[in-house]
Request: fold
Amino acid sequence: MRLPPLNAVRAFEAVCRHGSILKAAEELNVVRGAVRQQIVTLEGYFGRELFARDGRRLVPTAEASAFAEACSAAFDILQRAACELEGGVPGRIRLGVPSAFAVWWLMPRAADMQASLGDVLVDVLPMSMVEPLQMHPELDAVIMGGEYRPAAGITALRFMEDEFGPVATPALAATLSENPAAMGRLTMLASRSAPKLWDEWFAESGTPPVAFSRRQEFEDLLLALGAARSGLGIALAPRASIEDDLQRGQLVAPYGFISRPSGYSLCCRTPDAKRPSFAALSDWLRRCGTRS
Reply:
């Protein structure tokens, strides 16, 4: 089958990934008109419109979104293959990790991780806004929690269960009754990086939503948990991120934790999943996840 024009595909994929012709043009180092022309070329090739025009915005159709996802996976594979051809896979894994998970779970185990991986270096890059790997071509892998379904060309290797629940200082928790509705007297601490976390806990725990007296938002979960530790209010936390706080008695979970079947996963590009360095990282994560 004849392939579509690859320059047009590249421009199309960049527009879909960035959601912006301007940002796509900046990435490709061309003018916006050139990107628009490539989109027109690709639409002519397929004989259909790939975007719905909403003023100045281009919104990809459902079929175009699926095609863009496949294109992203294909470009990632090509980029990795080119790296090999130029001299082999670098002995370094650029790993995107949720900020709170990195600080309170991964980094205390960093020395053990490095000893297990030998010459393979892992660059841990904290992510305040956790996004799928296909949105980050500069990364080799990411750790995802919650309900995540890998895209085409991405392999998700589950290594640990995920538990979460409301946490507060012992002093604040002592003011609560057994009925979670009592939390309404406290300030709800939320994270913009995980805006649905409280809604998910209410739904999955079977707890009726609570009308809090006040809601305060922070840029990421790391800051929300820091606010909870200071006694500002009550936060919703993954257990893995606050295990040390629980052991020291700095935070308590007045209503316990509930398990999420999806757990935490190491997500990498499918061709990388069988490479020795990624297999070693995955094995180490599984060992530590089992002990946690």
